[in-house]
Design brief:
CATH architecture: Alpha-Beta Barrel
CATH class: Alpha Beta
Strand content: 15-25%
Order of helices and strands: HEHEHEHEHEHEHEHE
Number of strands: 8
Number of domains: 1
Distance between the termini: 24 Å
Largest sheet: 8 strands, parallel, barrel
Helix content: 40-55%
Strand order of the largest sheet: 1-2-3-4-5-6-7-8
Number of helices: 8
Radius of gyration: 15 Å
Structural class: alpha/beta
Length: 187
């Protein structure tokens, strides 16, 4: 599955970051082959995942943002067995480790706020070994290049990406994909 994920990003590097379930149809009908679900709750999550899978697209759910689901190993097991997304996104190392143990793809979301957080991100990623990391904010080409050259995992950037030039700069700096909630960039 990781190879499919990486190949989809190589073909279509823009990731639809869905912040409202009402925008899911627009995301699945876009050119984006990967969707990050950044919203939802225990009642609509399975339907959202099934809808995306019906269009043969990959979906990651941001487990930290889903309402009504605790952030523990039982929740991960439930998500893996009942919801069946392709993977999860999280800032929490224990959830990423647990998801990997269950065979799910993982995206480690990392917020870069200073030079110490760069070193911390690299060390954490080497320890967790996620399938990809997402650097936020995504409008830092120099930092994207520094982190992507220091790691052997695909780098995705996201956050504050609102124009096409920012996508181009991120990709030129070593990012494999760019997550954005700007619907006009999903084409």
């Amino acid at each position: 599955m990781k190879n499919i994920f990486v190949n989809n990003l190589k073909r279509s590097p823009v990731i639809a970051g869905v912040k409202d379930v009402s925008d899911l149809d627009k995301a699945i009908n876009s050119d984006c082959e990967v969707i990050f679900l950044l919203c939802g709750n225990i009642f609509n999550l399975k339907e959202c995942v099934n809808t995306v899978h019906e269009k043969n697209k990959i979906i990651f759910i941001h487990i930290d943002l889903i309402e009504g689901i605790s952030r523990d190993s039982i929740a991960l097991k439930y998500i893996s067995q009942e919801i069946k997304p392709d993977g999860i996104i999280s800032t929490k190392n224990n959830l990423l480790k647990g998801a990997k143990a269950l065979g799910m793809l993982t995206v480690q979301r990392i917020f870069i706020i200073d030079s110490l957080s760069i070193d911390t991100a690299i060390k954490a990623s080497q320890m967790i070994n996620p399938d990809a990391i997402e650097i936020m904010p995504g409008i830092m080409p120099r930092i994207t290049q520094q982190i992507s050259s220091s790691l052997d995992v695909p780098v995705i950037v996201g956050g504050l990406v609102s124009i096409r030039e920012e996508i181009d700069k991120a990709l030129a700096s070593g990012a494999l994909g760019v997550s954005t909630s700007s619907k006009e960039l999903w084409r």
